[in-house]
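FORM 12-B: Structure-to-Sequence Request
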């Protein structure tokens, strides 16, 4: 086979603080970490089999590569930054959506990133890494908690704080600039990142439309009307937009159901 070229992602940032681990995130960290160990023990043969190679993924029937490439990484730094972002953004997203929907979002974004890689990269480029799925999680985090302030340690030194909604736009904008400037011709899979962000956005729009249906306001009285208004506010600005009084009202309403 031709000598492969590798494309991977290295965000170059560290988030300053993070939430306690949630169940699905913990599972993903363990599995991806285990795959990294196995990958280093098995060598390039495993990479050729499980990494996403556009020239063989469909033509040879290796369709599993659109999923398995997510679990491979090109080095310790590549693994570290992706897992750090998975922890920082994934835990709160999982708690907001539930583990099943969170995993659906993660793999939808990752597979979508793989499809974009298949369309835009040369036949014998090896795509690996969870970065596309991570970009989907970042978009989901920004849609669920748009006003939450996230603090980054840029290059481990410079603290930068911004709202999540701006952070997602900046990350996507940087990837778009790389694509425009270099045509995706370096070793980072920028098309995969943009694809993951796009599929993550699409998944969240679908999930919200299926979760939050218009609610009738005929028999709830004042309490029911207030709950409906609060739910509408959550739909527009995420759970973080609620005041403590509104959160308490929701808890009381849930107890009466």
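FORM 12-B RESPONSE
SEQUENCE OUT:
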């Amino acid at each position: 086979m031709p000598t492969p070229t590798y494309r991977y992602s290295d965000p170059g940032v560290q988030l300053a603080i993070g939430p306690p681990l949630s169940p699905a995130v913990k599972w993903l960290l363990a599995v991806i970490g285990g795959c990294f160990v196995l990958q280093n023990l098995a060598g390039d043969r495993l990479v050729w089999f499980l990494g996403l190679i556009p020239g063989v993924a469909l033509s040879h029937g290796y369709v599993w590569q659109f999923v398995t490439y997510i679990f491979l990484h090109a080095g310790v730094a590549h693994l570290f930054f992706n897992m750090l972002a998975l922890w920082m953004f994934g835990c709160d997203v999982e708690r907001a959506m539930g583990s099943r929907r969170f995993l659906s979002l993660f793999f939808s974004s990752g597979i979508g990133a793989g499809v974009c890689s298949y369309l835009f990269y040369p036949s014998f480029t090896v795509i690996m890494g969870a970065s596309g799925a991570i970009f989907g999680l970042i978009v989901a985090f920004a849609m669920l908690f748009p006003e939450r302030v996230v603090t980054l340690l840029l290059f481990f030194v410079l603290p930068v704080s911004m709202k999540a909604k701006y952070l997602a736009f900046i990350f996507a904008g940087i990837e778009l600039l790389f694509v425009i400037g270099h045509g995706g011709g370096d070793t980072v899979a920028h098309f995969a990142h943009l694809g993951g962000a796009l599929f993550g956005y699409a998944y969240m729009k679908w999930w919200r439309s299926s979760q939050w249906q218009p609610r009738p306001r005929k028999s709830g009285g004042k309490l029911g009307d207030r709950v409906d208004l609060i739910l509408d506010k959550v739909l527009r600005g995420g759970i973080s937009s609620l005041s403590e009084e509104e959160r308490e009202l929701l808890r009381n309403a849930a107890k009466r159901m």
